[in-house]
Design goal:
This protein is of the alpha/beta class. The protein contains 14 helices and 19 strands. Strands 2-1-3-4-5-6 form a six-stranded parallel beta sheet, with helices on both faces. Strands 15-16-17-19-18 form a five-stranded mixed barrel. It has a three-stranded parallel beta sheet with strand order 7-10-11. The termini are far apart.
Length: 449
């Protein structure tokens, strides 16, 4: 039976919905299959096996997953279709009800996907395997060695002990837990050995790393910065209340740590933050941002904002707008509040009309575009190191600065996966345009603006 399955099921289409953590986990799953001879194809290409790693942070994410499943089935009607991850954990029966889905695996079971594929054929009804969250089960995941990427995503933490009133992540992923510093250092060294220049530390609540094991994120970073050959360490996101002075001082002092901070805000109204049960108020947030910018004027600082939370009045929305306008952050992602089952906020009154949410989202989106453009413009005329990620047929090379600024250049040289000095010539709302600086003339250093 196993030989027959390998003969017929050689093409695997993998797709990730949601966060960088999900991508790292998809890569870990994918490596199990490529090690057995599977070839990775696109979600719209003919495939023998389709695996969708789902997200459930919003109802939009749920809807996107269902649409993607149906799209994959249209392109590969005979494929064995597996949906795994957070949406599968929380709403397994919804997914199982889609005609053509063969397997639904929750967050605890997705790393055993290969075992289920080895024993299953295309069937009339989906097999659903969703286990209770085991808070001792971590599930190692690294994207290093999977696909042609220039940045390796390492999973260092999973789950969350916070209980924000709008969030289902504790239900989908369980309590906060981490893998060991020794294991992360091993994976980081492996990534460097494979040629990666940058690693990205991912998790649900990365700032909570090691809290149950007598260690912390700072202790992890102190080990990672010593790895020979590693040129950049990027941290996906840290809650503002976990950005301690000691952690920030270490971050400022080590060039290997990217000058890029992603700090979730969710609301600029203290009234709404309290209703959300966030663990900080706007004063703490503003102070952390100001401390970063005073030490690193070029820092890229991103955020997340939820619009239309129950009880968000015009006044509280304006507080959010003015707060974001006034503080020196570089960009922010906007999410329209989505009522999630089994959360406290689902029972809150004073729901916001969808049209009002849409108008507020548009207003914030316009502000976000302006702020990102203003931030990008500060780099015009400066020369900065860029890690190039991709080369296009028209001769355009695209990469990222350590501040998370997207930069495109035109060049005949293939400098993919190299860190190269680029002089920024123009700034737009989504990217900067530059030229490769003359080699050996301009050192690869941080700049002061």
């Amino acid at each position: 039976m196993l030989g027959q399955l390998f003969f017929f099921m050689k093409r695997i289409a993998l797709h990730t919905l949601g966060c960088k953590l999900n991508y790292a986990e998809t890569a870990a799953i994918g490596k199990q299959f490529t090690a057995q001879g599977y070839t990775v194809v696109g979600i719209d290409d003919p495939a023998d096996l389709v695996v969708i790693n789902s997200c459930s942070v919003t109802s939009q994410a749920d809807r996107e997953c269902r649409q993607l499943v149906r799209r994959a089935i249209r392109h590969s009607p005979d494929a064995f279709v597996a949906v795994v991850g957070c949406y599968a954990q929380l709403q397994a029966e919804q997914i199982a009800g889609i005609n053509g889905v063969d397997l639904v695996l929750g967050t605890q079971n997705k790393f055993s996907l290969f075992d289920f594929i080895n024993t299953e054929k295309k069937k009339n009804h989906a097999n659903v395997v969703v286990s209770c969250i085991n808070d001792n089960n971590f599930g190692l995941a690294s994207s290093a060695g999977f696909e042609d990427r220039t940045r390796a995503f390492l999973k260092v933490q999973d789950g969350c002990d916070y209980h924000c009133t709008y969030c289902t992540i504790p239900q989908a992923r369980g309590r906060s837990r981490s893998t060991t510093i020794v294991e992360i250092v091993r994976q980081a060294r492996e990534a460097v050995g494979l040629g990666y220049k940058e690693i990205v530390l991912t998790g649900v609540n990365v700032g909570d790393y090691g809290k149950n094991d007598g260690t912390n994120l700072l202790a992890l970073l102190k080990q990672l910065v010593t790895i020979d050959g590693l040129m950049r360490i990027r941290i996906s996101s840290v809650e503002p209340n976990l950005l301690t002075d000691e952690l920030l001082d270490f971050w400022f002092a080590h060039d290997i740590l990217c000058h890029h901070w992603h700090i979730p805000l969710q609301s600029g109204s203290n009234t709404i933050l309290r209703k959300m049960q966030r663990r900080y108020l706007t004063g703490v947030y503003a102070e952390r941002v100001e401390r970063i910018k005073s030490n690193v004027p070029t820092a890229g600082i991103g955020s997340d904002v939820i619009v239309g939370f129950p009880g968000e009045s015009d006044a509280s929305f304006n507080e959010t707008y003015n707060f974001l306008n006034d503080i020196p952050i570089s960009y922010f992602h906007i999410f329209s509040y989505s009522e999630r089952p089994n959360t406290s906020a689902a029972a809150f009154d004073k729901k916001i009309d969808p049209q009002i949410k849409a108008k507020r989202s548009t207003k914030l989106r316009q502000l976000g575009i302006q702020k990102r453009h203003m931030f990008y413009e500060t780099f015009v005329g400066k020369t900065v190191p860029v890690l190039f990620e991709s080369a296009h047929l028209d001769g355009t090379l695209s990469g990222l600065t350590e501040e998370y600024v997207r930069v495109d250049v035109k060049s005949n040289a293939d400098v993919t996966n190299a860190i190269v000095n680029v002089t920024i010539k123009e700034a737009f709302s989504e990217k900067c345009i530059g030229t490769i600086a003359e080699p050996n003339k301009i050192p690869t250093i941080r700049i002061a603006i």
